[in-house]
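Tokens for chain A. Residues wanted.
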């Protein structure tokens, strides 16, 4: 005799209630939202979030060098974050709505010179990259502790592959030497990294890479159009230590290989005698590296080499042995899935959770590199897989299910 069983979860059961809604993970999803899983020759969506013009300059520089094309365009959702003071209610504004009728009132109520400067830069970048970039501009007025919500909600709603953030550090303000500049913005990056529905890229701009868009803006827009022709070749390097974050970083770097102004070097770090390797991670790493090299080995401006190390000290020594100022941009994964043997002894050095151990190493003053740093964190889907197993135990242990099962099989 056939029968159908319906699973009923009682919301009076605290375990069931936690499964139904976890306020600490409201933006996590099971679908892939990564650079790696964005098909080639398709539009890639990203959220760009900045609080000031200075930070925006670096991010736009990176995006320009990332080289969106007509066949692989970018759809950018650009948010300017404005700290909300006092008891005012948070406001999230799409700039096209302002342009369509409330410009004067909007200026009087909220906008400032700083907001106008960033929004003008958004508009200029869109105009000069119109054939390969679609930019949607927003302004979010919120307390710093809630800013990550606007960023994550937009990324979730627009199904973007990654979020691009400027590296944040607290430093003394030139205008007020006793006050910290960007105080509190560190927590915004940390909260985005913890709650993101997609991958995240943190860009540490050291000003070595300069962008024609911002030269034009700063020079009072001397020309009406911008050329992609550059005066020099930029040298990028990927430090590939394995794991999901580094695989994501390599996929991003691969998209840059079409840029004729970039030479790319990929250096893969491997543990001596395969010590500490996770078989599954190693297999995934091998697959991505093989794919990358087969695709790019015929290109004169792309090179690949491997370095074998016994511990974190040798990893650090190998990086320091490179001619650090040969590179304009260092690209690496944040941490997830890296063989711990490769980082052995380095973990205690890391105080910066935005960049991870290797990112912090190449960004630090001791390393003395003038190159900018890009650290990549791939979307974390392990929570969703974990939820499936946890939910199974919740269902099996739920008092409501136990009672339902007994009643169902009773004669």
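Reply:
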């Amino acid at each position: 005799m056939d029968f159908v069983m319906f699973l009923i979860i009682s919301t009076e059961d605290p375990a069931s209630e936690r499964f139904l809604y976890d306020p600490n993970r409201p933006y996590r999803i099971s679908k892939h939202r990564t650079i790696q899983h964005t098909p080639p020759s398709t539009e890639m969506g990203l959220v760009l979030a900045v609080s000031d013009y200075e930070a925006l300059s670096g991010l736009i520089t990176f995006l320009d060098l990332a080289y969106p094309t007509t066949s692989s365009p970018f759809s950018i959702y650009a948010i300017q974050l404005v700290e909300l003071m006092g008891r005012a209610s948070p406001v999230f504004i799409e700039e096209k709505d302002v342009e369509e009728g409330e410009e004067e009132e909007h200026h009087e109520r909220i906008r400032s010179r700083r907001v106008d400067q960033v929004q003008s830069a958004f508009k200029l970048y869109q105009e000069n990259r119109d054939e390969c970039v679609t930019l949607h501009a927003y302004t979010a007025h919120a307390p710093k502790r809630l800013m990550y919500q606007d960023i994550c909600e937009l990324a979730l709603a627009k199904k973007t592959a990654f979020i691009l953030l400027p590296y944040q550090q607290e430093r003394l303000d030139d205008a007020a030497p006793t006050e910290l500049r960007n105080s509190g913005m560190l927590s915004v990056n940390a909260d985005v990294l913890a709650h993101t529905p997609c991958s995240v890229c943190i860009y540490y701009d050291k000003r070595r890479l300069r962008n024609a868009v911002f030269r034009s803006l700063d020079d009072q827009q001397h020309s009406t159009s911008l050329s992609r022709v550059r005066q020099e070749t930029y040298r990028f390097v990927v430090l590939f230590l394995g794991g999901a974050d580094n695989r994501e970083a390599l996929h991003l770097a691969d998209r840059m290989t079409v840029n004729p102004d970039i030479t790319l070097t990929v250096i893969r770090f491997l543990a001596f005698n395969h010590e500490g390797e996770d078989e599954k991670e190693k297999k995934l790493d091998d697959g991505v590296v093989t794919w990358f090299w087969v695709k790019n080995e015929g290109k004169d401006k792309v090179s690949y080499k491997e370095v074998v190390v016994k511990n974190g000290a040798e990893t650090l020594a190998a990086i320091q042995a490179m001619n650090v100022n040969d590179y304009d941009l260092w690209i690496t994964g944040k941490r997830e899935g890296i063989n711990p043997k490769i980082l052995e002894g380095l973990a205690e050095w890391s105080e910066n959770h935005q960049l991870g151990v290797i990112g912090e190493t190449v960004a630090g003053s001791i390393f003395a590199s003038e190159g900018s740093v890009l650290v990549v964190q791939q979307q974390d889907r392990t929570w969703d897989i974990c939820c499936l197993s946890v939910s199974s135990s919740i269902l099996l242990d739920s008092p409501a299910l136990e009672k339902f099962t007994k009643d169902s099989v009773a004669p």
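The chain has 15 helices and 13 strands. The domain at 44-209 is CATH 3.40.50.620 (Rossmann fold).
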